């Protein structure tokens, strides 16, 4: 007969015993598996033991004695878990609010030389695409294939325009550095600890913790990311770097991050440069480039990235940084070359594939763009924007059977009204392309139902109204479009043509000048201005 197997467990007469897991190791296991809430709760239980079993932790100063290693470990692990819950990489996340744009005291030159400033991207020598082919953002840059924080808001030229900018943080007010994630970070402590903050910063003896390097680093990240208290974080970092005799590059980078967040860009630059001398790190190069871009010195940032590539050949983040700067400076051909270099190193880089696909689409090569977007679909990217782009590529590549099904999928996957509006707007374009004016009219109306600030839809509706002979409605729609998007040349030009037809020459001339300002190379605008000048000369 087969021998009976030994059974480890809690049953009566079993051969083994169930072991109680060590709480600290269990918490560490949760942390490594990114289950931060369970980790935090377990550490809280360890720290809330009866007073006889532990000495008080930070923010609850002990009467005497040391701080046991076990409690120190639990406290350190809890701070790291709470930090990880709200952690956002500072390198990629950057929001430039209205105050930073309009009240910028760090500008090197008010009128920069062509090709050296991000504020005048249209003057670049790279021969960027014409706005007639590729739509531009408010700052005059062609729209990119990938949404980044810096490409969302643009650089408004006047304070009035800044306040009217499209709402990017999906709030009722224009984006400021206090909106978006900073609001979320400020309230993070209340969300994670309903009974109050875990560490009482006002009672914290920073000098004491600065002398314990391992605890100090966890504490700094907690203060900086979780509590969003930059001044206290800076004080701790200054004390810790002093304790390390200014030899620890990590603390210098953290001080630089604090200075950057406080708007002290030149001080941040000094700290990052000093850190690079001690320890050559890709992250530090990226932080330093961020400082130069905020100071509107893209050429310096490009040189920094290229020097970094000499020391870290083939580093994807550095090549991608160069491509982004070229794209922001309207030098699309150079940007595309660097994005191709990115794909040589990392052929699943979503941003590079999306940007090259977008570039091919606007270069009148929808079939090639379709290959890039299909590649993204194969990689598992499955969202509204991708199906929207696939639908457009299929339409312009004359694969009509796939067009409507792609747009249907895009509508199904849309997460908010802005995305839905984009899809309906593109469907309106398809309807115009196949000659179904009534469908186009309905699509543009649905666009405005979802997003009432959609200037392009107002402009296209006005064109349809003009075809029907409704002149006054068309003029009203064009005025709305031009006030919502002064950077677009189409509403100004259409309004100028319409006004000239009805004999309102003065308004026509004013609108034509605005159109020329938005797109200096537009031949039809120049001809219209020439005609109007002849009229005025005859009068």
UniProtKB/TrEMBL annotation:
Key words of the record: TPR repeat
SMART domains with a match to the protein in the record: TPR
Cellular compartments per GO CC: BBSome; ciliary basal body; non-motile cilium
Ligase recorded as keyword: no
Keyword Lipoprotein in annotation: no
Repeat positions for TPR: 455-488
InterPro entries hit by this protein: BBS8 (IPR028796), TPR-like_helical_dom_sf (IPR011990), TPR_rpt (IPR019734)
Bias (Polar residues) ranges: 149-160
Biological process per Gene Ontology, one example term: non-motile cilium assembly
Pfam families, sorted: TPR_8
Domain of life: Eukaryota
Region Disordered, annotated ranges: 116-162
The name this protein goes by in its record: TTC8 protein
């Amino acid at each position: 007969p087969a021998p009976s197997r030994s059974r480890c467990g809690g049953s009566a007469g079993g051969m083994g015993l169930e072991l109680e897991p060590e709480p600290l190791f269990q918490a560490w296991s949760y942390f490594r598996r990114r289950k931060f809430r369970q980790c935090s709760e377990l550490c809280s239980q360890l720290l809330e033991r009866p007073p006889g079993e532990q000495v008080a932790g930070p923010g609850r100063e002990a009467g005497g004695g040391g701080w046991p290693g076990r409690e120190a470990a639990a406290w350190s692990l809890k701070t790291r878990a709470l930090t990880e819950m709200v952690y956002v990489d500072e390198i990629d996340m950057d929001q430039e609010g209205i105050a930073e744009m309009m009240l910028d005291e760090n500008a090197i030159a008010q009128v920069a030389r062509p090709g050296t400033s991000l504020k005048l991207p249209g003057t670049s020598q790279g021969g960027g695409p014409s706005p007639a082919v590729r739509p531009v953002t408010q700052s005059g840059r062609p729209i990119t294939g990938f949404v980044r924080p810096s490409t969302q808001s643009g650089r408004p030229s006047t304070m009035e325009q800044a306040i009217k900018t499209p709402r990017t943080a999906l709030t009722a007010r224009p984006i400021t550095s206090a909106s978006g994630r900073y609001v979320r970070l400020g309230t993070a402590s209340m969300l994670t600890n309903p009974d109050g903050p875990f560490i009482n910063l006002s009672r914290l003896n920073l000098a004491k913790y600065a002398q314990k390097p391992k605890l100090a680093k966890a504490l700094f990240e907690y203060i900086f990311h979780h509590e969003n208290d930059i001044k206290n974080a800076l004080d701790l970092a200054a004390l810790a770097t002093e304790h390390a005799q200014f030899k620890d590059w990590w603390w210098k980078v953290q001080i630089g991050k604090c200075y950057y967040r406080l708007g002290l860009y030149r001080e941040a630059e000094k700290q990052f440069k000093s850190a690079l001398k001690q320890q050559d790190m890709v992250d530090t190069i990226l932080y330093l480039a961020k400082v130069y871009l905020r100071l509107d010195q893209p050429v310096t940032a490009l040189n920094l990235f290229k020097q970094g590539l000499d020391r870290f050949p083939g580093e994807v983040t550095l090549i991608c940084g160069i491509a982004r700067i070229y794209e922001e400076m309207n030098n699309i051909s150079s940007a595309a070359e660097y994005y191709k270099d990115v794909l040589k190193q990392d052929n699943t880089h979503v941003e590079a594939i999306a940007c090259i696909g977008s570039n091919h689409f606007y270069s009148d090569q929808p079939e090639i763009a379709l290959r890039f977007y299909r590649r993204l679909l194969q990689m598992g990217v499955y969202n509204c924007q991708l199906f929207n782009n696939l639908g457009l590529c299929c339409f312009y590549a004359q694969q009509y059977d796939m067009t409507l099904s792609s747009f249907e999928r895009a509508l199904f996957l849309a997460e908010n009204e802005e995305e839905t509006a984009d899809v309906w707007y593109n469907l309106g374009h398809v309807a115009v392309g196949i000659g179904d004016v009534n469908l186009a009219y309905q699509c543009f109306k649905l666009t405005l139902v979802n997003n009432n600030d959609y200037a392009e839809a107002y402009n296209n509706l006005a064109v349809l109204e003009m075809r029907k002979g409704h002149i006054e409605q068309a003029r009203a729609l064009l005025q709305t479009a031009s006030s919502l998007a002064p950077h677009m040349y189409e509403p100004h030009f259409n309004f100028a043509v319409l006004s000239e037809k009805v004999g309102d020459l003065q308004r026509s001339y004013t609108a034509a000048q605005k159109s020329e300002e938005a797109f200096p190379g537009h031949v039809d605008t120049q001809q219209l201005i020439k005609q109007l000048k002849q009229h005025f000369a005859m009068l």
